[in-house]
Design brief:
Rossmann fold, eight-stranded mixed β-sheet, two-stranded antiparallel ribbon, 8 helices, 10 strands, 21% strand
Length: 273
Amino acid sequence: MALEAFFLPSATGQRFALLHAPAPSAKPRGAVVYVHPFAEELNKSRRMAALQARAMAAAGYTVLQIDLLGCGDSAGDFGDATWEAWLADVKLACDWLRQRTTGSLWLWGQRTGCLLANEAAQRMETPVKLLFWQPVVLGKQFLQQFLRLKIAAEMLGGDSKGVMERLRSQLRQGESVEIAGYLLSPALAAGLEQAELLLPHRSGRVEWIEISGKPDASLSPLAVARLTQWQAAGQTARGTAVSGPAFWQTSEISECPALIETSIGVMSEVSGA
């Protein structure tokens, strides 16, 4: 396996990328673009994303990880990001990888990255396969939870009255707001709020994996309902639950080996079909 770090040029500056290539002797299984989660969840997930990318490369997949606009080592600040700019970055990564690989393309999203991956797939002319890690189904709900981080901080200071309405008002008036060290622009907030995990392309495939802290892991009711709806509409979709820590929000960097093994397993089943 080989690892290459480089910058992808775009109209709004360079995007930092990592390419995990399989060994020359490995049988090519396809290509994968990783779409990372939101804000601090990205940092907490880097270890798991790296471990999974290496495992995919070892299994014969060419994997491209890209830091979206204003994230990680890419150009811009988080406050410059918009939902449309992030979708453009996903397309940039897919186009770049498709020009250099053969076989099917997977979009591997985590948390809000699943919303981006799914919407990007809807806009593509050719089908892609989708691997979802603990997907956020409703962007509006996620945004509400993110804004509550500000309320928690204000409570520590003894003044949380009217914080949510003040934040909403600032965003409506076109002002950015600072949440847990991240400057959230009105454009990004609006895009996230409107995003929803809707029925993807029927010609593609969805592998939906959730992580549970319980030994007898099971899918959430929301996942079961959404997958059942998609399957009834003719979409090839499957849900799987594994036991492990919610590594994207744990205080310390943690790993979930079962998630890595399961992801490779479901992808290999599809590739072998």
